[in-house]
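This part of the workshop introduces the protein records we will be handling. A record pairs a protein's sequence with a compact description of its fold. Backbone structure tokens are a discrete shorthand for how the chain folds in space. The question running through the whole workshop is how a given chain folds. The record below serves as our worked example for the rest of this section.
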Amino acid sequence: MSKIVAIDPAAPDAATIHRAVYILRQGGMVVVPTRHLYGLAVDALNAPAIERVFAAKQRPLDQPLLILVAARDDVRKYAQAIDAKAGILMDAFWPGRLTVILDARPILPPPLTGGTGRVGIRLTGHPVCQALVRSLSRPMTATSANLSGQAGCGRIEDLHPAIVAAADLILDAGSLKPGIGSTVVDVQPDAVQVLREGAVTAAAIRAALDASTGAGS
């Protein structure tokens, strides 16, 4: 059976999703299409699977991985608290586009957080990732499918041979639409810090927070 399987990014077929989820539940690693780049997906609660991602990407162990969830309510399962400011940003910019960093619950394996005790969480809006996370009933990683320090890939043909060899399944959605990744925001009780500006501008984040403050004054 071929490792590379075609998938419709807008309407993924159930059989392919079932096969991918079976692999994820066994601790496997799947290359998945996201909005603009291919990502490496594993069960985010499976520590050995997470270690496979770090090894495949040759990624330093102190660089955390984000997780994808299928529903807003899932955030409470994996983050210790949702700051009011985090809630405002989730309401304004989810699904997709924004990754929010919060204090991680102990249920998340330490390798996932890079030893920081904090985790980046995003509500996925991509049909393939959404179908996978919902069927898996657990959070999933989606770090870019490239060697650490190298550019991400919008085509399966551009994946590094080491990534192809390490993956148990590759879902080929063709050439992905070019664009920028999610904005990463660290939300603390006393501050909101934009760590990486992407699909949501820092100005839009400030405007959303200011609008909420003004509405409540």
